[in-house]
Amino acid sequence: MSGNLLEINDLHVNAGDKEILKGLNLSIPFNEIHAIMGPNGSGKSVLSNVLSGNEDYKVTSGQIIFKNKNITELKPNEISNLGLFMAFQYPVEIPGVTLMNFLKTIHEANRRANGLEVLGPSDFLKYVREKAEILGINDEVLKRQLNVGFSGGEKKRNETLQLLVLDPILTILDETDSGLDVDALDIVSEGIVGMKNEENSFLVITHYKKLLDKLSPSKVHILVDGKIVESGGPDLAEKIENKGFESFN
Amino acid sequence: MNKKINKPSEKDFNNPYEFGFETDIETVFAPKGLNEDVVKFISDKKEEPKWLLDWRLDSYSRWLKMKEPDWSSLRYPKIDYQDAYYFSAPKEIEKPKSLDEVDPKLIETYNKLGIPLKEQEWLAGVAVDAVFDSVSLGTTFKEKLKEDGVIFCSFSEAVKEHPEIIKKYLGTVVPNSDNFFATLNSAVFSDGSFVYIPPGVTCPMELSTYFRINAAGTGQFERTLLIADEDSYVSYLEGCTAPMRDEHQLHAAVVELVALKGAEIKYSTVQNWYPGDEDGKGGVYNFVTKRGDCRGDNSKISWTQVETGSAITWKYPSCILKGDNSSGEFHSIAISNNYQQVDSGTKMLHLGKNTKSRIISKGVSSGSSSNTYRGQVNIHPKSENSRNFTQCDSLLLTGNCSATTIPYVESKNKTSTIEHEATSSKISEDQLFYCLQRGLDEEEAIALIVNGFCKEVLQKLPMEFAVEAQKLLEISLEGSVG
Ligand SMILES: Nc1ncnc2c1ncn2[C@@H]1O[C@H](COP(=O)(O)OP(=O)(O)OP(=O)(O)O)[C@@H](O)[C@H]1O
Ligand SMILES: [Mg+2]
């Protein structure tokens, strides 16, 4: 048994007939923050989706091991209930469903799947308000329909609230920082840092060094054309900020 | 690799009808079939006055000359009206004096349905007039209502106790010549509910009736008459459920509402008659005529319905906006799954000045079902400054089902306006994946999205009904995955 929370071995993934991930390897131990940077279209979001079990993408070979369990064939909700959360790059709107109702529904589903008791309404409300407060989200926002008419930044803040409420073991942040203003970026990254503990890990996809400065990842990986082409410390992010991805092509 | 979110297949549609049990009690039937003698038998059983028998017989002779309507989109085999029983009453309760005299098995049935009949359990403030097959079982909270002068009882009882009101209003909203099914009902109606709210009274509680078809092969023909006298208010809830059966059961109810000057009636229905099995076998044929008459100025009638059951639904709760400044509303959720067919909508007839109507219809179709919204809005030449707003949204969960919107609109007054909006959508893969990523399974995700889609209408239901209705949406859509 390895001590890694996530292990990806030689992962090949197709979107339609086109191969997008071309033999990707990545390991994330417990209690670490890893970052992935890479040019547009290199396969970062496809990777997040595949890890989350999105059936739009076909795993042609390779394996995804999460908590020592092969999750390559599992359904998205099964993976989710094992403790994997993805903050979407483009969160979807669900009309008529309030953010509060959504949070309650997913929290209950999660608790039930893990054999835990469901919180009563007043306990849950208290719990959500605690998390919302960290992110500066007020009751009015909780009453709004999920992501309907939300600005880009507001949607990202919502994703973070769901993250804090579900408190997963592995969190994938797919460009959660994109679209956030300077203050929001501070709030959100503080929220994430506050969530960090010995039993969870993060995979942070970003184009900007700024977020990484706040999260201080233990490793930065460079994803180009469906493969991790280089891994290193936070200084890699700096190198990319200055020189771009050209040297990796 | 075949990692898949299950796509819908016919096999997936297992929707065990939650309320499919039958109560084993002795039953008294009228002879099978329909003729004058059966009409007389029913009237006689109910010890009705002659004028009512005459009205029934008049209806019967009209019915004989009528043709079953064929303009709807519904397809079903010809109904043999001679092959059904038109009256059945549980033997033990032919003449119940009070709840204590009621067969405990019946009470048990209600308990299974989740309708606690005992008065002490109704401290929450709902009075129930429960119709078991054809005879009214007992009415709770009658005493309290009496203090305010509210009359809430079975139709048969009202015929005996308040004949003058019945005589004055019966058939004035839905005449016994109205349509094939309403006329049939007028001839053979068995029982139903009667409500009268005196002038100026706000009914102190939600009134509620649960209908239920029990005996095999019996048609159920209830008749409901609700009168809100001047400046009164009442909210009425109707819940329907029927046990599972292989053969089709006919149900043809009539509901008449009268709102006098300044009165307001809210009428809510949750209908989950047995819809038939996943192959389309069995299920209730539901042909209902519901109409409200805003007879007085400033009166208001609003219909809210959640229709999830029945193999066939043919139902158009309507408003006649006769009084000036009167207003009519229709809020509807119609869910169809498997082989269910729904042809439902409303009719808004603007006669008075400054009348308003609002129609919100949400159709959700799944399986191989068909779901038609059929609406009619008429603004008459003298109806000045009247307004209608209609919004019809349909959501399709599978590729096999169909959703159709048929709005007829006609305005004969230039100062009046009619507005119509319609949308048709599918649950997107993105929405589904989003919910699944958060840990919901497909059914939970669909239920959540459908509930969101229906929210505007669900919000119109009284609190205790809204919860039940939400649960019902989930049950009705079990197994259906987009
Ligand atoms: N469902 C799909 N069908 C076909 N091609 C797809 C699909 N999803 C993604 N792709 C393609 O896969 C490639 C990788 O896309 P991906 O979204 O992973 O890029 P990314 O690295 O996240 O880029 P960005 O930085 O712009 O977010 C792109 O060429 C994209 O067009
Ligand atoms: Mg991306």
Question: Care to give the gist of this entry?
Answer:
The complex is a heterodimer of chains A (249) and B (482). Chain A has one domain: P-loop containing nucleotide triphosphate hydrolases (Rossmann fold, 3-Layer(aba) Sandwich), CATH 3.40.50. Chain A is globular and about 55 Å long.
Written description of the protein model:
The complex is a heterodimer of chains A (249) and B (482). Chain A is an alpha/beta fold and 249 residues long. Chain A has a single domain, classed as Rossmann fold, CATH 3.40.50. Helices cover 37% and strands 30% of the residues of chain A. Chain A is built from nine helices and twelve strands. A six-stranded mixed beta sheet of chain A has the order 6-9-10-3-11-12, with helices on both faces. A four-stranded antiparallel beta sheet of chain A has the order 2-1-4-5. Chain A has a two-stranded antiparallel sheet with strand order 7-8. In chain A, strand 9 (170-174), helix 7 and strand 10 form a beta-alpha-beta unit. The longest helix of chain A has 15 residues, at 99-113. The model of chain A has no long low-confidence stretch (mean pLDDT 93). Chain B has one domain (2-476). In chain B, helix 2 (50-64) runs antiparallel to helix 7 and helix 9 runs antiparallel to helix 10. Chain B is 21% helix and 34% strand. The longest helix of chain B is centred in the C-terminal third of the chain and has 17 residues, at 442-458. Chain B starts with 26 loop residues before the first strand and ends in a 6-residue tail after the last helix. The model of chain B is unreliable at 1-17, 92-96, 118-127 and 133-138 (pLDDT under 50). Chain B contains ten helices and 23 strands. Chain B has 482 residues and is α/β, with parallel strands linked by helices. The A-B interface holds A 52-56, 58-60, 72-77, 80-81, 85-86, 88, 91-97, 101-102, 105-106, 109-110, 113, 145-146, 162, 166 and B 1, 3-5, 428-431, 433-442, 444, 448-449, 451-456. Bound molecules: adenosine-5'-triphosphate and magnesium ion.
